[in-house]
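To: structure desk
From: M.T.
Subject: fold request, one chain
Message: Could you run this one when you get a chance? Sequence is below, nothing fancy, just the single chain.
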Amino acid sequence: MTHCILIGAPVDEGQQRPGCLMGPAAYRVAGLGRTLAGLDHGVEDRGDVTLGEVGMQACTNPLVHHLPEVIGWTRALAHVAEAACADGMPIFMGGDHALSLGSVAGVARHAARLQRPLFVLWLDAHSDIHSLDTTRSGNLHGTPLGYLAGRPGFDPFPPFPAPVPERNICLFGIRSIDPDEHAALAQTDIVVNDMRVLDEYGFAVPMRAFLERVAAENGLLHVSLDVDFLDPSVAPAVGTTVPGGATFREAHLVCELIHESGLMTSLDLVELNPFLDDRGRTTRMMVDLVGSLMGRKVFDRPTRSS
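Reply: Done. Structure tokens follow.
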């Protein structure tokens, strides 16, 4: 049994389509806590993180927006994440992907204190490896992977406490990369399993290969699950829909493989925008996936009336 700590991260400033701040409430209404308790896990809901005092930080890229607010969220979430890791498995209910700037920072501090390597599995349509200098949209939800890898271009953010080695990062399911991100990835040792790789080899083979490395090095595994990892046909409630994502079956397979490895120690649920959902369809799908991450098999999934 795992002690699951639910943490609301109502971050909406990392992009420009309002609604992600409603994500934590949507997960609670959809029964995320009940799902975990039904799998015999302990559940503790620590409520929503609040944004404290916001500074006056600025950067040289005029396209970047809400920089002080995102820095504020990063500091607040890093503090909460580090504390939660000592007590159980934190599950960050987002919120856009900018929340991972803080959640992974806190997890990295915890891993460094334990003197264990941190691995990061990025289930996403995008690589999110921009910096403040390279982003052309100004949306900071496209920067957390660059931050946690310790790449330059993040002043005035607090220095990342223990950068994750590039070879310990796995991008899985990506299919939308702009030229700057492509160039950045070409210079790194980040493991890139884009949809071309997954079409050729299937989802299980590259996933098992990465998980075996985590196990061999006694690593902690942080999983960051973006709604747009999924195909929009099964998960429409996201502001960055990209066709060709994981199907219902493929996504559950990935989650079951992660569970069977016994390696996941923290989890982000990001980019859910309930305002764009179809009667809670995407929220329920994400809750079902968390169920698979925590031990439920697809054939155990209860049938619902239409």
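Reply (cont.): The longest helix spans residues 67-85. Let me know if you need anything else for the meeting.
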